[in-house]
Amino acid sequence: MIKRRQSLNEPVLSVRDLVIQYEGAGGVVQAVRGVRFDLAPDESLAVIGESGCGKTTLGLALMGLLPKNARIIAGQILYRTRDGRIYDVVRLSGREFRNFRWKECAMVFQGALNAFNPVLKIWDQVLDTARAHGLRDRTRVRDQCERLLRLVQLDPDRVLQSYPHELSGGMRQRVMIALSLLLEPRLVIYDEPTTALDILTQRAIIEVLRSLRQELGFAMVFISHDLPLAAELADRVATMYAGRIVELAPVRHLFYQPRHPYTRGLLLAVPPVSGPLTTVASIPGSPPSLAKLPPGCSFAPRCELATDHCRSEEPPLCTVGADHWSACHCWSAVSLDRRTERLGGASHA
Amino acid sequence: MPEPLLELHGVSVHFRRGRTLLRAVEEVSFCLEPGDVLCLVGESGSGKTTLGKVAAGLLRPTSGSVRYRGQDVWRLPANAFRSFRRAVQIVHQDPYASLNPIRTVADTLVAPLLHHGIARNWADAVERAARLLELVDLVPPEQFLPKYPHQLSGGQRQRVSIARALTVGPELIVADEATSMVDVSIRVSLLHTLRRLREELGVAFLFITHDLAMAKYFAWQGRIAVLYLGRVVELGPTPSVIGHPLHPYTQALLAALPEPDPELTRQKAKLLLRSLDIPSLANLPGGCSFHPRCLYFVAGLCDVERPPLDAVDEQRAVACHIVQQERTGSDALRARMEVPTWGNDERLSSERG
């Protein structure tokens, strides 16, 4: 079991009231609307949500990789470096950000094939990365790289001499994970790290991430639509809906006692494979368009608990328990009957 | 004796790519009765989509036969082949690619109704199309008929695809990953719609998926066939295959599968495999294709002789030497084959005594 973070530890990342919008031919779309969270060093946070909820935009913003038509309208993204300095990456210039990226914060993207240069051998790409960040000692880079590749269960001699297309999807993903740790960042962001991989490869990646974290100790943010992945690897989970974090809680609380009807709906829609047949249900309706959000709570049109209050006033993200936050007027009425009995057996009170 | 609806017998499909021969499907046999549900479960490259195409008559197998109501479909005269193709409809994975973007929902549904002479005239066809939309829960239908695909969400498009498959009154629907490109919150309702069609219309389903959770919920009353590198390695009723897998590959899959439950899934961190590398279809290992990865591998047996898909009881069949030995002899292997199960019911533990 992973220990809860200590209160003394200052967060490595603090996101404050972040608002991001896209400007396109169809008008202005707010993809991220007032997102706010803290991430402790060595903590793992999963951001879950469906397509179009703004989770990838959030991830790109954390890395300063937003596309040109996106603008950060308000808010701060504060990183605390090892020596205690605080940077607001929203205000960093391109050059400052290049130094910062990969050293302090690395990102592993969904399609690992696209992240590699197809005409360079892996070792040359490693060297390029290292040089770009001022590491000139080839032997040291080689040693570090071989150590990391062994940690992700790959044969360094074979992999480093390969071109990306010679590796399988799972191997590429593991190389990317190893590479992301080359400069010992304090934070790694994973965007759908296991999507499109086979189940057995997924399991291998999950095990690799878990052991890497134990070995090296770094903070992780997972961006995923995959609830099982969050259940596996997260200490805390944030549910995003229509550009907002609607629930944020320790992983067991969120899975066994969700306090937002959307989280509850997701849990009921993703049944476990083992065990007897349990009830499954989907959420009626479909997610709103970010360009045309309903008034009040964006989830109200799909919510069975919705009242007139919900349809007129957007609920803020409020404390509903120890370290548990929900943006729902009716949070106390949310109950997950299917699984609540498991909470008694869980390790926290 | 009534003939089965569709029977695949020893079906192999080989593709030639340059000088290499890819054995996508090898000697697969199964049988579907009217109203049956069979799930083909497998990872990428297991041949499940190829098999789906063979079952729907879109692809002619390299060897083996496909029989529709007892008749070899590739020897049928043209008009009988057409009626077979009408009886077996396919719903594709990608609802964004499978609908014509410049046709409205009404156009998409009316065309086959008129073409096959099911509707007498345009008005009748539109009337029938509206009823089909109701059947797939696109209500009110008048609202959906004039829409173009780009005006619909992924889930709604997939429902239109299903309605289109229903226009010709099929006896079997091949659903190839029909729910996998739809958001999770909507996936289950799509699955419910498919289940209802099965119950109300008695349509048989060949449900192709990589997602065991979807297989479980769709085919609980039906069967699952687990594919590995083009072969069926395990076949049986869904509850027993999922609750008590026999083949080492099925066991490894279920043991590896992340579950949406933190306690349950964190007990699983174990890979029941010797190797992660999946052999290439162009260069399959000898003997059992799974032997380089299998924990129970016995040298001199598994790497030499290919295990046939043999019955273990009236309903289940497994292609594994070790399982078959365990069943027939009292081997020390029995102890080795004990696998942990996760959160399963007491039935299993009592079975093991």
Summarize the structure.
Chain A has 349 residues and is of the alpha/beta class. Chain A has helices spanning 55-62, 94-100, 112-115, 122-132, 138-151, 156-160, 169-180, 199-216, 227-233, 251-256, 261-269, 308-312; strands at 13-24, 27-39, 44-48, 70-80, 86-88, 105-108, 187-191, 219-224, 236-241, 244-250, 318-321, 324-326. Chain A has an eight-stranded mixed β-sheet with strand order 6-7-8-3-9-10-12-11, sandwiched between helices. In chain A, strands 2-1-4-5 form a four-stranded antiparallel β-sheet, covered by helices on one side.
Give the topology:
The complex is a heterodimer of chains A (349) and B (353).
Chain A: E1 13-24, E2 27-39, E3 44-48, H1 55-62, E4 70-80, E5 86-88, H2 94-100, E6 105-108, H3 112-115, H4 122-132, H5 138-151, H6 156-160, H7 169-180, E7 187-191, H8 199-216, E8 219-224, H9 227-233, E9 236-241, E10 244-250, H10 251-256, H11 261-269, H12 308-312, E11 318-321, E12 324-326
Parallel strand pairs in A: 3-8, 3-9, 6-7, 7-8
Antiparallel strand pairs in A: 1-2, 1-4, 4-5, 9-10, 10-12, 11-12
Chain B: E1 6-17, E2 20-32, E3 37-41, H1 48-55, E4 63-68, E5 71-72, H2 78-87, E6 88-91, H3 105-115, H4 122-135, H5 141-144, H6 154-166, E7 172-176, H7 184-201, E8 204-209, H8 212-218, E9 223-228, E10 231-237, H9 238-243, H10 248-256, H11 262-266, E11 310-311, E12 317-318, H12 321-328, H13 333-337, H14 346-352
Parallel strand pairs in B: 3-8, 3-9, 6-7, 7-8
Antiparallel strand pairs in B: 1-2, 1-4, 4-5, 9-10, 10-12, 11-12
Helix pairs in contact in B: 3-4, 4-6, 6-7
